[in-house]
């Protein structure tokens, strides 16, 4: 529930709050106005009234509308990045990590509608705002990249491509699902996105320098026997470094 307070509920003056609580109240009120009116149409007077404070109080916390808007975007972006990071650490199974990350994007867009619109559909073109939005996406990519790079054995460039693809597809599909007015239930949308992503990620087994070196000196007949006699890798790369390879690159590291 928003902490914004309509001015009519507090005639003449605002209730004294601790600075941190006041800041949160102002951010909530501003978020609602920015989503409803857009950055350019929204005014500080309107935001102050919606928050139930005087304009000088608003300016004590935020010197300009741009400063306020950036703070609002930051608050929502931090939540998204935190949600994705938390999701990636809920399991050590690689396929479940992919699902958790995708689920985090769908949940954010579904539950934090204001944040979604401010981050992904903003009408503000100021470079500072654009940097914040791009920074949120990059932070999500970094979280995934760290795990892929640490556990897949791929080079940094391919690792980052995979991370960017996972974040990009999750983001775009979640936005489409919401903007199309939820044409299927959320879990079906998540399942579809996970199937798409895992279908690609599962084809990247762990490759280490030692393994590559060993492959160059091993007897061809023995190598052929090992490939045809060992367990199938069709389900994805090694998760633990031994045994089943059904769950994709091991992703137990941290970003």
From TrEMBL:
Pfam families: TetR_N. GO terms for biological process: negative regulation of DNA-templated transcription. GO terms for molecular function: DNA-binding transcription factor activity; transcription cis-regulatory region binding. Keywords: DNA-binding, Transcription, Transcription regulation. Residues 20-80 form the HTH tetR-type domain. It comes from the Bacteria. Residues 227-255 are annotated as: Disordered. The keyword Lipid metabolism does not apply. Residues 43-62 bind DNA. This is TetR family transcriptional regulator. It comes from Gordonia lacunae.
